[in-house]
Structures are given as structure tokens and as C-alpha cells.
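Re: the 241-residue chain
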Amino acid sequence: MDTVRSIIFYIAWALWTALFGLAIPFLWLSGSPPKIIRMLSRFWARGILIMLSGIVGLKYVLWNGKSAPSGPSLIISNHQSMWETLAALVLFPDVAIVAKRELLRIPVMGWYLRRSPMILINRDAAANALRQMVDQSRAAVAAGRSVLIFPEGTRKRVGAPIEFKRGVELLYKMLDVPSIPMVVNSGSFWGIGGGPLRPGVITVAFAAPVDPKLNSRDFMKTTTALMESEKAIIDYHFDIK
């Protein structure tokens, strides 16, 4: 049954996305206004989350009722599935997501991502990618937007330890905004391997803001510990349900 529901969901997702392709000529003729494109992107993502709930039975909840932070922040999240990328567009108004440039190849939404704009980096050019990431993140914060980064660099399997790659400590030092760790357990329902989606409730947990005055080593150690603690709590909660 999970397989059938997943197939129906992916078909619905494709049809929903195609509708947004119809708007591209009109947006292009009007100068591709970023605010309208971001609004439509959030509407697109919200529709997918509604389809996940209605078709698959996959919902989400904010742990202990903690709401998403308001105002420009550096959101530091673990990465287990496509879900958190979609949900970020709904959870955080005007978020700029640090993502790999390959996402531009996605039909329809690649056009929207480029013009939102998101912070798209070329991982093959490491030094240049870091510089572009910092510059674009600064521009996003100056415009009143939050920045979301998945510092593990790729999706990780459930149970894998949280390990940061280079880059997040630079944003921490250079942006001068609150740093909020976020943890999800989406991989328990939407796996890396592309198997059928499972019904259930994804938990989103926000840890306490990280002290902005830490050095790079202490920042990495503290943030990782906070995220591992939150992950252990929501994993335990999931296991006993």
C-alpha cells in the first residue's frame, strides 16, 4: 500500500509542479520579481506538504510547540531526505537555502530557485564556492532573509552521527545573526534510496541559539552536541510510539 500511495503522490507532485511552469512566461515578462517568485515557491512547497499529508499520510509537528525563529537567522539543519528542503520554504519566510548548483537542472523549479534567489554553490570549485556562499548569504541577510544550510553536505541515513563539512563556521563568524540548530527525523519516513514513503509524523526540533562569540572549534563542537541531543530525544520519542 505504501508503494501505491507513493506513486500517486509523485504523479500529483509532477502535475502540481507543471502548473507552476505555466506561470514562467508571465513572470519572465514582468521582470522575474524575486518576492513574487518566493511567494509562489512557498505556495508550491505548501501544496506538496498537503499532498504528503493527504495521499501518503505523512505529516509533521514542531517538537514541544517550539515555533520557527523569526527575523534573519542562520538555520543549521541535519539532512535526511528531500522533505526538509521543501518544508524550509514553508517554515521560514523568505529563506535562502544553501544548495548545490545541480538543483538548477530540476524542471520548472530550477527556474524558480535561480530567481528566488537561493544560494547555489559549485562544490567542484571549493575555494570559490565558499567565497560565493559567504557573499550571497550576506546579501540575503542584508535583505532581511534567513539562511538555511545543511552542513553535512549530503543526506545522511537515520542513526548516522552529525558531522559538519567546511563552510558553516564561516557563515557563523561572518553573518552576525542568531544561529539556530534544527533537527528532523524525516529519514524514518522518506529514505535516501528512493523507496516508498511511509505514513507518520516527522518531528522538527529547534535547539537553543548558539552563543555568537565562540571560536570556530567550540562553535562546531557545541552545535553538533546540541543537534545530537535533540536528535536523540526525537528518535527516542519515535521509537516508543
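The mean pLDDT is 89.
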